[in-house]
Design goal:
11 helices, mainly alpha, elongated
Length: 323
């Protein structure tokens, strides 16, 4: 009877772990890669902010993933932890609905609030999917490796869609910078930074080799993205910076004076804390010295007063008051 019961429990846990793994990887890849990677930035549609942001397939997959995550969370033993703290979240989403109703476009606002609620539910259930910390690190490592493989696949086989081109309509000055399957180089840079941190976690929890590979690939991609590199944002900015470096400010002595003043102020601020501590110690020593000196002076005056009194008493005793 015990064996039969054990045999019934074990397959249930195995099926639960498999379902959790499938949902974990599906959510991870859906947000990190999406269903339409390698966006073409040379078309006129990129100039319209509302063009191509959603489609029927994207909506269907989002609803299916939300339904699966919600169903998994409701049958989980820790389902009470979903959407906590619920009172605060209820107030927050009620405010979202209210401001959406009084806005100029209420339907768009309500749609955004519903999407935010779906993402919040997915996030609260997401950490219930792994069976253990090692399982969590393993799925993260595999997901990041898949994401990096897709990004490097675009660099090698689809460079026109994975590398910024000079024919782009919005930002042609980013030509030559890597973006992979992301829509922009800055998005790719931020994703690679997060991937590097995940690689460090994977290195310490699951596989040292996989973690080192993730960190190395993320670092190489991050260097080539040029994220937030103002020197390469535009040719005009580069020329202006080169002009400044060559000494264009030489005819403006006030700029140099203010720069030296700022540098001295910055250095003074760095030395402000130790200087303040030294001043406090010196002031304490000075106060102590002054107090000791004051006490010594009062003691000498007291001694002189006592001696004078004794001398007067002696004179009175001898009867020489006329002196």
């Amino acid at each position: 009877m015990d064996r039969a019961g054990y045999g019934e429990v074990e397959p249930t846990n195995a099926v639960k772990a498999r379902v959790g793994t499938v949902l974990f990887m599906a959510i991870f890849l859906f947000f990190w890669i999406s269903i339409n990677p390698f966006v073409d930035l040379t078309g006129e549609a990129v100039l319209d902010p509302s063009a191509g942001n959603s489609n029927r397939l994207n909506q269907i997959i989002s609803l299916l993933l939300f339904t699966g995550m919600l169903g998994y969370g409701l049958v989980h033993p820790l389902r009470e932890a979903i959407l906590q703290p619920r009172a605060l979240l209820a107030i927050l989403f009620s405010w979202f609905i209210f401001v959406s109703l009084v806005s100029a476009h209420p339907m768009l606002g309500i749609k955004g609030a519903i999407l935010a609620l779906m993402v919040t539910v997915n996030a609260s259930v997401y950490l219930l999917l792994p069976a253990s910390e090692r399982h969590f690190a393993k799925m993260l490592g595999i997901g990041i490796l898949i994401m990096l493989a897709v990004a490097y696949y675009g660099i090698v086989f689809k460079p026109q869609l994975a590398i910024h081109q000079a024919s782009e309509l919005r930002e042609p000055m980013n030509a030559g910078l890597w973006r992979g399957h992301f829509p922009h180089k800055n998005s790719a840079a931020a994703a690679m930074v997060i991937a590097a941190f995940i690689g460090l976690y994977v290195m310490n929890t699951w596989s040292r080799f996989a973690g080192i590979v993730i960190v190395a690939l993320s670092f190489v991609f991050l260097v080539n993205t040029g994220g937030q590199d103002v020197d390469r944002d535009a040719a005009g900015h580069s020329a202006a910076r080169a002009h400044i470096r060559e000494g264009a400010l030489s005819s403006y002595p006030d700029c140099r004076r203010w720069r030296r003043s700022f540098q001295s102020l910055r250095g003074g601020l760095r030395r402000l804390r130790p200087a303040r501590r030294f001043h406090q110690r010196a002031r304490h020593r000075c106060d102590l010295y002054q107090s000791r000196r004051y006490l010594a002076l009062r003691l000498r005056r007291a001694r002189r007063t006592a001696s004078h009194r004794l001398w007067l008493q002696g004179l009175l005793a001898d009867g020489r008051t006329g002196l």
